[in-house]
Structures are given as structure tokens and as C-alpha cells.
Fold this sequence. Notes:
Helix content is 37%, strand content 22%. By secondary structure, the protein is α/β, with parallel strands linked by helices. It has two domains: 111 residues, Urease, subunit C, domain 1 (Roll), CATH 2.30.40; 297 residues, TIM Barrel (Alpha-Beta Barrel), CATH 3.20.20.140. Helix 9 packs parallel to helix 10. The chain starts with a strand and ends with a strand. The site of zinc ion (ZN) has 4 residues, from loops.
Amino acid sequence: MLIHSASQLLTLAGPPQRGDELGRLGIISDGAVLVKDGVVAEVGTSAELKVRHPDAPWLDAGGKVVMPGLVDSHTHLVWAGDRAREFEMRIQGKTYLEIMTAGGGINATVQATRQASRETLLAQTRARADILLSNGTTTVEAKTGYGLETATELRQLETLLALDQEGPLEIIPTFMGAHAIPPEYQGDADRFTQLICQEMLPVVKQWWADHSAGRPLPFVDVFCEAGAFNLEQSRCILETARQMGFPLKIHADEFEALGGARLAAELGAVSAEHLVKTPPEDIKALAQSQTVAVALPPTPFGLGDPNYTPAKAFLEAGGLLAIASDLNPGPAWCESMQFVIALACRYLRLTPAQAIAAATINAAAAVNRAAQIGSIEPGKQADLLLLDTEDYRHLGYRFGGNLVKTVIKRGQVVLSHPG
Ligand SMILES: [Zn+2]
């Protein structure tokens, strides 16, 4: 298939974009892409490619923007129930930590997810996956962590594998048994840490070998935060996981700086997320490492909190920056990476070009897939979006709507909005 007549073909060609390189879109005017067997075969101008491939079926982009599929590199996609009541409480003045201490927060979703049947969990998660795809996300990272007991954590992993199998949305799973301290371990985070290290991680590894048909191991993630896992517990879990071969992620410095960002750099984690309260020396350590810094602007936005990730400081220090939704039933039920881009422009002060790169090629790096997705280059998976605009800056500039017209996953048109 030859997709031609893109006003701007955003290739995002080249490696993930560090520091002030961020925002290199690799635009081809009147661009075209040849797709073969689900993979990008050639990229060039419409004139060149039409001459070289007159017999390929043509898809006319109609003078609009064509770009790589959006990659949402941080979500908690798989849960049951909702927390609309909690949203109302927060509006009335309760803080996130107060709600968590009062038995709300993550643990409310843990109860609902433990009680949900396999079918309910699958159906509710699938509904969100469909919305993600319809808003242009073609690959999503998705964490467990609403089970906090082995059986429910495995059911979450099972749900993610089943949905990935169904497609077309590609799902990259993360095991996050260390998302919160469950009610039965309240006040004894050390014992729960031991349970994760000694029981959950080995069971997950074996279950994965038996059920994933040879896929690489999922990520292991930890919520390193006051009220969740302290630095020592986080280190214990991540080091154990690393020894077992799991790639690592960490939630760090969302409300308090505990040293999680520095730990991520030290352990060679693939990404570190939130990074709102990260002190300057830890920003430097992270920026000089291979670990991707992932900002999650929907979370402070959802909390009505004025504190956002100091993205400019990460870029000035030469860091690799990505943006993601943090989709979850608490403060950030956000299924649109287009909205994340709009927030990143306003609150992280990224230009539309920087935000787009942070949501594609750099987001691919944040899930260890920069060699397969995140840009339009020969040999990469043909995950593409046709937008309903001629100017890429409308991503970011406009918000609250959906500029995606057509979604192509692995070379197949999987979704086409009318009009
Ligand atoms: Zn998160």
C-alpha cells in the first residue's frame, strides 16, 4: 500500500531525541510511505514513490498530516470499577494522601479488581483499549498493580495478554505488584516487600514462561513514594527483579523526593516516571543515564495541582524525555495522548514538535521498543496515523477533540473516522 499526498509526513527518523535535539520531526512535504507486509518499506515524496510504485494500491492522505502512531508508555489500563466519588471528594478539598489513608485511592480499585470476574475485567479494559486506539494510540504500556496478591496480579497479566492477542492495539505489560501496600499488610511494608521478592516475582516469571508464547519478560515497576515503598524497599524489589532478568521501571518523586530517580539511573532502569519533585542533582544523574524520564502531565492536571515535571531542566541537562497519560481510575482517567500533548505544551512548556517526539520515538524508547516503533523508517512496524489537519502544530494547539482520521496498525487500516 502506498500512502501519498501527506501535507507533512512526520518521519521522526533517527534515534530517540536527547536534550535540545528533542523536536526533530524529520518532515517530508508532500510525503509518501510505502508499506509492505506490515512494515515500512520506503519513505519519500509522493512524486518519487508514485513513479516507483505505480501498481501498489494507493491511499490518498488528502493533503493532511501523516505521522507515527502515538505510544502511551505509562498506563494502569487494567482495572475494574471507578472512583467518581473520590473525584468529588478531592474537589471538595481532600488530598490524594488523605484519601489513600482513609482507605480510598488505589486500595478502592484493588477491592473492585479482586472482586471482578475475568469477563468483567476483560470487558472494562477492552472498552478503554478501544478508546485509546480511536484517539491514535497504537502501542500502550499497561501495568498490573490492582491485585496486590498473586492470583489477581496474574489475572491482570492474563487480561493484558488476551487483549494484545485480540489486537489491534499492541500492549506491553508491566508487573506492578509494588503499586501500593494492600490493606492486609498495612503498617508492614517490609513483609509485603518480602512477599513480592520471594513469592510474586518467581511466580510471575514462571507463569510468563508458561503463558506468553515466548514474549520477552514484562517490565517490573515500583511506586517509590511516601505511603507506598521507601527507597530501600524499592531497591530490594528492583534488584531482585533485575537479577531474574526483568527490565525495570520506577514511579519516582511524584509527591516527595525519596531518591527513586537516582536509583533508576544506578540500576539501569528503562524509564523513571512522574519526576515532579526530583532535586537538581538527581535530574543530572538521570539525564546522564540511558533511563528515559517520563513526565505524566494528566496526573497533576487531574489533581488540580500546579506542580508539573520540570521538563526543561531535564532537557537542559541532556536527558531523554517522554510523555505519557498515566491512565488510571484515580486522578488521571485520560485515554488521549493528544490531550497529553496539549497539556505538555502548556505545563511542561514543550513546543508541539517536542511534545510529538516525546509521545512517539522517545516514548518508544521508554518501553524499549525504539527499534520497532515510534518513527516512520524503512524496517519499522507500519503504525501510522492520518490526521484531519494540514499542520502538525494543531496537535497541542487544539485540545479536547480528536484529530485522528485513520489508524493503521502493522500496515492494516484498523480504524477510520468518518468525515
Ligand atoms: Zn503510574
